[in-house]
Design goal:
The chain is an all-alpha fold. The chain is built from five helices and no strands. Helix 3 runs antiparallel to helix 4.
Length: 112
């Protein structure tokens, strides 16, 4: 059974920080993304981040399928990942941990 304390704490802290920053932002999220991609040094960081987000998305999809869920069940997490990167996988880990607590131990498959 996966503990949810760490992903839940990270989700709450990072989501709160994100909301606070977005409320103070002087430009839209799209304008901010465009400005980040306009310079090679910041573009490299964004590309690296989205490569990692893609790997997390693939893992979430495969994990959901391994657990007998539809691939469509991961779509909300993938959408959150596309916009806020860390929020999607963190929320997935929290929900997955809560689901594991409700299942009998024999049904939970070990992580590969």
């Amino acid at each position: 059974m996966m503990p949810i304390a760490l992903p839940l704490a990270a989700l709450i802290a990072f989501s709160g920080y994100t909301v606070g920053v977005m409320l103070q932002a002087e430009q839209s999220l799209i304008d901010f993304g465009i400005s980040l991609m306009s310079r090679p040094d910041t573009a490299q960081v964004v590309i690296d981040l989205y490569l990692l987000a893609t790997l997390a998305g693939i893992w979430m999809f495969k994990d959901a399928r391994k657990r007998g869920q539809s691939g469509w069940s991961v779509v909300p997490y993938l959408l959150l990942t596309a916009v806020f990167v860390s929020v999607g996988p963190l929320l997935y880990l929290v929900v997955r941990g809560l689901q594991d607590r409700k299942r009998p131990a024999a049904v939970i498959l070990p992580d590969a």
